[in-house]
# Entry
Amino acid sequence: MDNETAFIQRSQKGDLDAFNQLVLHYQGQVYNLALRMLGSQAAAAEASQEAFISAYQAIRGFRGGNLRAWLLRITANTCKDMLRSARARPSVSLESLEPNPEATPRSRAESPEEHVLRSELGADIQRGLDSLSREQRLAVVLVDIQGFSYEEAAQVMGASVGTVKSRLSRARENLRDFLRRHSELLPSQFRLDG
Amino acid sequence: MNNGHRRWRARLSAHLDGRLSPGERNALEAHLAGCEPCRKELAELTSVVALLHSMPQVAAPRSFTLRQTPAPHPWWLRYEAPLRYASAATVVLLVAVVAGDLLFSGPTLQNDLGLMDGAGAQGAPGPQREAQRSTADDSGAAFTNLATPAAALPDSAALPAPTSSPAPSPAETQKSLASATGEGQAPSSEPPQESLAAPAPTAPTESEEPTAGRLRPWLWAEAALATVFGLLLTLALLGRRARRRLSAR
# Structure
């Protein structure tokens, strides 16, 4: 983001408009992390709002560095608090999960049937994510869904790169075991031999 | 799966992401060349990662910009979690102190309770009972408030002389009475007053001061820990309530 440093400095002085520029830039990533962690759009929206409120209250303590990792760490902690207090009720509404048109473009046009299949598959993957522990879920969401490097994921998780590596490995194995039990929904190119 | 395979399979995930050192990568690839189960495992993990990569980025349902400046957190709110842990630690310490009190001060505690029972069983508290209490805790601890100040103690001649109600009257009581009223009488040589004539039914004088001396630190510790726990718990609960209020927007 251009002029991010300037927006941060102005935010630290109490400029709400400057902070809202940062919100607009990062809210997609924050919301997606919360959605994959909580499995519920309503809970993800609540967590995202709470995360930005907490970020505004804490931004004076931000000492520079990776703002994205800092924001997502706040988001992850907010999600963990909500999971702990069991306010999140995992439920995925397939119809309202509209993909972001600015996201990574697909290589070819998708037929309606493929779209439905992808939506159902996405719901199954989300159920698989819900079956993971909080720490494993966070590792796989950050690295495999959000595309973070191990180092950036370690910053968000407040852990070492080695810890990220081991949690990610176990998360992938557990997801693989979960998806084996639902292999009938997997497209042929993704089919796992049980 | 034997331990050898487990060791290789633990590296498959990092290998997918290109996070193995050159030496580790070469060793793993050499193993994969001759191990079909591990190759199958690698293929499955590759599929899972590809599936995860295909998960779409979902559009935020609305804007999360802040409409008004949020109220600042109370300064102590950031310590909510440490306060909870401190409360729990204080409870543990309090339980330990109470247990220690019961274990190590047991006999003296019983003595003390026996004294209190003996005093309490005699009806309305009178000057002589209050005098006994001030004696039992001569250094002025827990029972000081109950003790009648020396100046308020009646002159020994004015003490009633009931003979029907036996009063446990250690010699120490007479001693403190005498010194308080300034009569300077030696307790051992002085015949006991009629109202204080009954012999001490329980422990001898020498045990009472040590009893009081051993008991007080435990009581103070228990009272202090209970107070600290109450304060910490109150702050933790206030913090939780404030956090819920701040987030309910």
Q: What stands out?
A: The interface with chain A takes residues 10, 12-14, 17, 19, 40, 44-45, 47-66, 68-70, 72-73, 246-247, 249 of chain B (CB under 8 Å). The first helix of chain B runs from residue 3 to 9. Chain B has nine helices and no strands. Confidence is low (pLDDT under 50) at residues 118-168, 180-201, 203-209 of chain B.
